Known about the structure:
Zincin-like; 2 domains; 4-stranded mixed beta sheet; 38% helix; flat; disordered N terminus
Amino acid sequence: MLKRLRNIVNPPSVETRAALLAGKNISYTLKRSNRRRSIGLRVDDRGLTVCVPARTSEKWLHSVLQEKADWVLEKLDGWQVRKPAETRWEDGEKIPYKGELLTLRVEQSLFAAPAHRHGSELRIFAVNGSSAAHIEQTVQRWYRFEAGQLFAERVTHYAHLLQVAPREVKLSVAKTQWGSCTPQGSVRLNVQLIKLPPRLIDYVVVHELAHLREMNHSAAFWRVVESACSDYAKLRKELRAISLGAE
């Protein structure tokens, strides 16, 4: 109890720093915590994060960073390659949808209308030369509509197979989770899933529904997942390689 109270009184401190690693100036986030006993490095889509014990010396920190310099640069380069190009909300742009790419077609119109898919194109009806922000909002509304329709269908399908009954299914805009499930039976699925291949959408649906039987990640939980998704390990690995920020 005393240890928990100390952590509340002295929460982990966070600061932004930079270091010269293998000849490159790298910015990173430094987090100090009373709970840590060693230095840990993590590289993800947000860059390098270094977690250290509260009283770590600068000498020790410098030594670890230099020792891991090549590893850090390799991981950062890997994330840079996977980082998607910024979407240009204009005619001819490619946007992801269920694992494929649709061509965005912006057509002038006298009246506002919802986005409409036609084959491999998503047609946006712009009024008086609508701005990029308006086009983006229209596409996002279309994504949400499509996600709501598809997720409801897949949840119904897999809920029957797993013999579970979620209390409700909601769309999520979480920044770090593809899905979640509460003990009360509320399942949330990230709207960004609509951009991924159907096999990954189904895996996330199965994963969250399985929590209605096992609210943990025990061996029993994974057996439930496997009963409806036999190649879950492969799909899990594939999903973890995708940055949620790209979705």
